[in-house]
Amino acid sequence: MHIEKNLDVINACRFCFMCRHLDPVGNVTFREADTPRGRALICDRIRMDAANLSNADFIDTLYRGALSAANRFHCVSSYDETGLVLAARRDIVEASLAPVAVTALAKTLEKATFSVKGKGRVLYFGPTPELYKGCATLAGGDPGKALAVLGFEAASKKVFARFKKAVAASGCKTLVVAEPSAFEFLRGNVPGVKVVHCAEYLMDQGMKKTGARKAVYLESDFLKNYCGNPSAPRDLLAQAGYALIAFGTNTEESYAVGEGALVYDTLYPELAERLCQRVYTLAEGLAKTRFITASQTVKDTLKKYNPAFDVVTLEEAVSLSQA
Fold it and tell me: Which residues pair with 140 in a beta bridge?
């Protein structure tokens, strides 16, 4: 089983309480199972007896995780509990034990196709092509990251192959990616093409700096906890005239409402709403404060459960500042 490659994590995390306060789901359900320790204990039971892999409660718990990786990013020993959960999901899928809803979603994600419009050495992949004048644009679904997160490794590779074929056919040398999950998945993995996040690209384009406006930047799970917390998004917002203010109870916790799991709201809408409610509650007292996220998925989720909540994407924030 894939979890057997993570025995150091199982042994370290199953009796450790140090990062339980950083699990987004555990913070709204208050279930011990919804913490890194709880999930490591489940994987330990599976390791001891493979028959436990078919336990429906275990499977549900392993898919309930938001995969924010905040615990890994802040772990003093860098134990990869997120990697352990992803390995467990692969074991579940390969044993044909994936929940019906997960399997149905995977079949939909497998249908992703990609097409390129325009020509140029720079290719943009994201929801706001109007910001990228003179660039070719790549349209299509998730490039395979969501399938990998769900544990469908073989299907992920097939979709990714179609994505790479479209990129290669474009003839581009630089691929600008907006969604943090796609950026994390693609960087360093597209032969002959430099993959950059849209914040880095937009900073190099230059913009007029308007009067400072206070805003909250909701840190991206993928950019912060998976990609080493690059400063480009915050630097871009400062360049655009935004004065960022602190948010939440601490700077370690994730407020990205399930971004790390990509399709969290699709599979667990009730839990996604509770993650959003935590953000709304912490936002009380910040009237007329704009919230900014690097992820279209995070914006859509926050707006779904509170349409009046003032949240825009990083790209939209830059566009609004230049209007």
Answer: 114
Amino acid identity for residue 39 in this structure: R
Q: Is residue 208 part of a domain?
A: no
Please count the structural domains in the chain.
3
Which residue in the block uniquely carries the two structure tokens 């007029």? 208
205-228 burial, b if ≥16 CB within 10 A, otherwise e? eeeeeeeebebbbbbbbbbbbbee
Is there a contact between 113 and 67 (Cβ–Cβ < 8 Å)? no
Please identify, among 154, 178, 203, the residue that sits at the C-terminal boundary of a domain: 203
Looking at the fold, whether 219 and 298 belong to one and the same domain comes out as yes
Domain boundary among 97, 118, 152: 97
Q: Which tokens in the block code for residue 63?
A: 């898919």
Q: Residue 267 half-sphere exposure, CB side, CA atoms within 13 Å?
A: 25
Interhelix angle 153-170/100-109, rounded to 10 degrees, is: 20
pLDDT in tens, 107-164: 999 999 999 999 999 999 999 999 999 999 999 999 999 999 999 999 999 999 999 9
Beta 311-313 vs 290-293: how paired, if at all? parallel
If asked whether residues 197 and 297 sit together in one domain, one would say no
**Segments forming the whole domain that contains residue 22:** 2-97
Residue 253 lies in a domain: yes
* pLDDT confidence band for 205 (50 / 70 / 90): confident
